[in-house]
Amino acid sequence: MGITAQYSIWEECKMIDEQQQNNTNQPLGEQTEEKQAMTSDSTAEINANATQSEVTDQVSTQANVSGDTATQSEDSGVAATEAAGNESTAKEPAVNQQIESLKAQVEERNTQYLRIVADFENYRKRNQKEKEDLEQQVKRNTITELLPIVDNFERARSQIKPQNDGEMTIHKSYQGVYKLLVDSLKRLGVSPMRPEGQPFDPNLHEAVLREPTDEYPEGTVLEELVRGYYLGDRVLRHAMVKVAAPKEDAPSSEENQSSPANS
């Protein structure tokens, strides 16, 4: 029983004693009736106080149970937090190791990507250069096949001398074709060499004749026999030339005189 209930019962008992003292001078019948009424009232009050004390005890019990439950929940939460912290601490090295592994994989993929990009760029440049070289080679081969035709036109122009109007008409007609052919070669990047009077260069010229002379230094190109050509900045065909050679000295008079004597 709670403290409140005990205190209420004590006050009721005290009130009963006071009433009994006050009613000693009253008639017996009235005292008896009053006693019965007070007894019934006290009984009801006692029952009410008992019920109230039981309810208070139940509420206190439930409060204690709730408090215990809350305390257990708090303890469980703290324990769960500590367990989660311990688990995360235990997993931290594995997570760090996984992060380092992923970083290494990313670095490796980045290196492979850069290598592939560099290889592709080299392949593109090499392919472009091979394509340009192939186009240049095809152009060189085609133009080289046309150069003998140009040579024949030039020989005809230098050797044929028209004597009448009919021959002059024919001469002008094929010279017109020659001019069209030369203009087409120029558009393709072909240009003729002009080696006369220049020093002989084996990278550009092919010496087929030597002529002794003292008018030009040795190794000077005297005449171009077959025209050479450039294709762009490269040699398409070497020029066949005649080169100056030192003039041989005449035999001395003493050698001429000794020759008949020896004979």
Q: What report would you give on this structure?
A:
The structure is a single chain. This protein is mainly alpha-helical. Among the domains are: 1-22 and 36-44; 191-249, Head domain of nucleotide exchange factor GrpE (Nucleotide Exchange Factor Grpe, Chain A, domain 2, Roll). The protein has 4 helices and 6 strands, in the order H-H-H-E-E-E-E-E-E-H. It has a 3-stranded antiparallel sheet with strand order 1-4-5. A 3-stranded mixed sheet has the order 2-6-3, with no helix packed on it. Strand 4 and strand 5 (234-237) form a beta hairpin. The longest helix has 132 residues, at 28-159. The protein is rod-shaped and about 185 Å long. The chain starts with a helix and ends with a helix.
Which short descriptors sum up this protein?
263 residues, mainly alpha, three-stranded mixed sheet, rod-shaped
How would you concisely characterize the structure shown here?
70% of the residues lie in helices and 12% in strands. With 263 residues, it is mostly helical. Among the domains are: 1-22 and 36-44; 191-249, Roll (Nucleotide Exchange Factor Grpe, Chain A, domain 2), CATH 2.30.22.
